[in-house]
Amino acid sequence: MTTEELEKLCSDTAALVAIFEKYDCIANANVNADIEKMKALVKEMAEACIENKEECAAFLKWMEDHEFYTSPASTKFHGNFKSGLCVHSLMVTYQALKLAPAIFADWMKSKAAGKFTFTAEDVFVSALAHDFCKAGFYSTSYKNTKDVFGNWVKTPYYTVKSDVRNLGHGNESVLLLLEAMPSYIKKRPVIEAVSRHMGFSDLTDTEKMNYSNFLSNPLVLLIQFADQSASGWYDF
To answer: In this predicted model, what pLDDT tens digit does every residue of 37-85 receive, in sequence order?
Structure first.
């Protein structure tokens, strides 16, 4: 990655951050998510940075068709509410875009700096798509609970669909991203960032053996930290 490429990444990520902040639709989204506003935000950001316009359109359509905007992000942890997946993914994207200039500038001092080149599109796509595997992953069930007056009421909660087929948290998200954007099969650093965004926590023993090799890819670490900070600091 050259100095000029880093400067462009910094400029482009700043422009995407400005778009995000213009919409201001995340702060209270767990109480009242404005789905149409989030859709508009995703569309404007995607069209601002994704160079392949056909794949950009397919990326946006995939999210419309696969419950990305209405699914929760989990059953009981972060984003366990309607639209929680979109809210969480947007917050991860925001964190990644804000942190990218500092992370990549520091990485440029490392021995691995000549191995990769990154763009704002890479940051945006990997962050927004990191949890694609959760779109349409949950169903709504009901349990009996007592309200404040002691009356029994049916309370909704989320469960994993019984017929779900999933090849692993990160890897399933990679496959779904490639459905919409097949050219990303050639973007190995982005695939690694999506696949390894959970760090060690969802790897097999065999995968853990060469995990240190992925740490030379700064996008892996950026998405990991953006994911952790979005859920840990902001409950998204």
So the answer is: 999 999 999 999 999 999 999 999 999 999 999 888 765 666 568 888 9
Contacts of 107 (CB under 8 A, 6+ apart): 113, 218
Calpha distance 180→161 (Å, rounded)? 23
Q: Please, which pLDDT band fits residue 162 given cuts at 50, 70 and 90?
A: low
For 198, other C-beta atoms within 10 Å of its C-beta total 17
**How many other CB atoms are there within 10 angstroms of residue 128's CB atom?**
23
Three-state DSSP state, 95: helix
Residue 115 is classified by DSSP as T
The yes-or-no verdict on residue 140 having pLDDT over 70 is no
Closest by Cα among 27, 18, 220 to 127:
220
Contact 47, 56 (CB under 8 A): yes
- Residue 148 burial class via C-beta count within 10 angstroms: exposed 0-12, middle 13-18, buried 19 and up: exposed
Q: Place 212 in a pLDDT band, splitting at 50, 70 and 90.
A: low
Query: How far is it, in rounded angstroms, from Cα 193 to Cα 76?
Result: 25
Beta partners for 143? 155
State both tokens at 81: 């509410």
Q: What is the DSSP string of 120-185?
A: HHHHHHHHHHTTGGGTT-EEEEEEEEE-TTS-EEEEEEEEE-TT---S-HHHHHHHHHHHH-GGGG
Q: Tell me, what amino acid is at 234?
A: Y
Between 160 and 235, where is the model more confident?
A: 235
